[in-house]
Specification:
Radius of gyration of chain A: 24 Å
Number of helices of chain A: 11
Number of helices of chain B: 16
Helix content of chain A: over 70%
Oligomer: heterodimer
Shape of chain B: globular
Strand content of chain A: under 5%
Order of helices and strands of chain B: HHHHHHHHHHHHHHHH
Order of helices and strands of chain A: HHHHHHHHHHH
Number of strands of chain B: 0
Structural class of chain B: mainly alpha
Largest sheet of chain A: none
Radius of gyration of chain B: 23 Å
Chain lengths: ~240, ~325
């Protein structure tokens, strides 16, 4: 039961808003020590357990380096931003008369969800798509309609651009057969003596995918209504 | 053959360059902290396999210490808004093409490595997408350098500008994966299972399904990752109760259970790469708060979707 202290550390760190990296490391060490502790362990044994936990953490850290490899895309994205990629994205969307923030994000949502369902998860993402293209386009669509945006609405629109990417990805990717989560479920069930085909799993991701589409469509429609209500009535402030 | 090892060398050199440029940045008073932080990540990419397990653990510990001290934000010279607007008008929609090179390369590289006979010898098929993505970045940078002829250091300086905007959050996903490994070794999952089955009455189908789905979401909120929650909650409630006692179909129960976990991912700052990184990248003013704008935009979708998952599991996962 003592090993659950690690989870308590995570929750506590969360509440006092400590730096999350610090919280993660503290939770790992507390868990490792708690697993080794019994009333008659001496200080030396606890020290050994601490070192062993740090080594286990390091082993996993090294094995998971691939997670952090994605950041090299920032070299290419930064270079294009320097040449005006975000500004171009804004200009492109301002020409589309029918574009609203909600409709634009809805189209992106559908494309992203279908692409993820086909296994093309790398076609979107925050560094590659949201920051350089989708967020500026959404802001552009709002500016074309309502003029210069107050900060509050600018940041609301940016948050929704990121949210559309996340929701579409999460509830699209599981329809694809060879995605990590499907393979994890298959592997887990196999170790418990239940053999399932990936197709059996991915088919049952479809009802949730459709529910996500329905719910988020309503959210985006409500977002458009809110922007219209709060910004639409204002007179043009630009000359 | 190009392997993940080669991609790691590219990553290592990128972070090493950022570290050096941070050290030389006199305008950033915390430049040395940034230089050490990015330098250690470079070391991890370039020499991680030679450091040993404890060495890597100490490296992670040093990263945590530096993050606690606080990283600064370098402001390398870049173009002004006016220059960017002028460039956007002059170059037109052709600016979008280099941005599309990266996903296109990831797609084509993966297909070549997995589907063709010769591709297997060119790109390691087991890591094809990551390797192709890295190649795509190199091609895109090379194309822009030839086309627009920016200063030679521009890709590294612009990369540093964005990397500093992301900050320490860049390493949180990797750290959480490592925490998961420690939890697994200590048997945290088994203990949670005992707790849940001891304290929550699971005497009808709807209660059991609700406990499993809500448990998945809650544990995902704590761990920041549904993959960590899945084995724990499925061993605790999913297989023994929903499947074992009430006769749910294991494939359907697990598939929908995982998606219930994803609803938790939408609501937690621990899922850094999905919820904190974009807040940093989009420069939201509340990015340091526990519930930043991105999470607040997602919660009203996540909660009804969690309810939808409970209903779907309740009505679809029990054939017969």
């Amino acid at each position: 039961m003592l090993v659950l202290l690690g989870i308590a550390v995570v929750v506590f760190g969360f509440i006092v808003r400590a730096n999350p990296l610090l919280v993660v490391m503290a939770a790992a060490i507390v868990t490792g020590l708690a697993a080794a502790w019994s009333p008659d362990t001496d200080l030396n044994a606890m020290y050994q357990a601490g070192v062993a936990t740090l080594a286990r953490f390091g082993e996993a850290f090294n094995k998971n380096r691939y997670v952090s490899l994605i950041w090299i895309v920032l070299a290419a994205i930064g270079l294009l931003e320097r040449a005006g990629l975000q500004e171009r994205a804004r200009m492109a969307i301002e020409k589309v008369q029918a574009a609203t923030v909600g409709r634009l994000l809805w189209v992106y949502f559908i494309v992203r969800q279908i692409a993820a369902a086909l296994g093309l998860t790398s076609l979107g993402g925050h560094p590659q798509m949201v920051r350089p293209l989708i967020a500026p386009m959404a802001e552009g669509a709002a500016e074309a309609r309502f003029g210069p945006l107050p900060d509050r609405h600018r940041f609301l629109i940016r948050s929704h651009a990121a949210a559309a990417d996340n929701v579409a990805l999460f509830f699209g990717e599981d329809i694809f057969l060879a995605i990590a989560s499907i393979l994890l479920i298959k592997g887990y069930l196999e170790t418990n003596g239940i053999v399932v085909e990936p197709l059996q799993l991915s088919v049952w991701a479809i009802p949730t995918a459709l529910s996500a589409l329905a719910i988020h469509s309503v959210r985006l429609w409500l977002l458009d209504r809110r922007l219209q209500r709060e910004l639409g009535a204002k007179p043009e402030t630009t000359p | 053959m190009i392997t993940l090892g080669h991609a790691y060398i590219i990553g290592g050199l990128f972070f090493a360059a950022i570290a050096i440029l941070s050290a030389l940045d006199k305008a950033n008073r915390r430049g040395p902290v940034n230089a050490l932080f990015w330098g250690l990540i470079a070391l991890s990419f370039l020499a991680g396999d030679r450091l040993g397990n404890l060495g890597n653990g100490l490296l992670a510990l040093a990263l945590v210490a530096l993050a606690a001290v606080g990283l600064g934000q370098g402001k390398p010279a870049t173009t002004t808004t006016e220059e960017r607007r002028a460039s956007a008008v002059r170059r037109g929609d052709a600016l979008f093409l280099p941005a599309l090179i990266i996903p296109a390369a990831a797609l084509i590289g993966t297909l070549i490595a997995k589907q063709t006979e010769w591709g297997k010898h060119l790109i390691d098929p087991s890591q094809a997408t990551l390797i192709s993505l890295a190649l795509g970045v190199l091609i895109a940078v090379a194309a822009v350098m030839v086309w627009l002829k920016p200063p030679l250091l521009a890709p590294l300086q612009e990369g540093r500008r964005l990397m500093d905007a992301v900050g320490w959050a860049a390493t949180l996903p990797q750290m959480l994966a490592s925490l998961g490994a420690v939890f697994l070794a200590a048997g945290v999952g088994d203990q949670v299972g005992i707790l849940v089955s001891d304290f929550i009455p699971l005497d009808n189908r709807t209660l059991a399904v609700s406990a499993y789905c809500i448990g998945m979401a809650l544990f995902t909120v704590v761990m920041g990752n549904a993959f960590a929650a899945f084995p724990v909650m499925t061993a605790a409630v999913g297989l023994p109760v929903v499947v074992g006692v009430f006769g749910g179909d294991p494939a359907r129960v697990c598939a929908i259970g995982m998606l219930a976990g994803f609803c938790g991912t939408l609501m937690t700052p621990m899922a850094a790469n999905f919820n904190v990184v974009p807040a940093n990248l989009l420069e939201l003013p509340d990015r340091k708060r526990a519930f930043n704008g991105v999470i607040r935009a997602q919660i009203p979708t996540a909660l009804p979707l969690l309810v939808a998952n409970i209903l779907l599991m309740r009505f679809l996962a029990f054939p017969s």
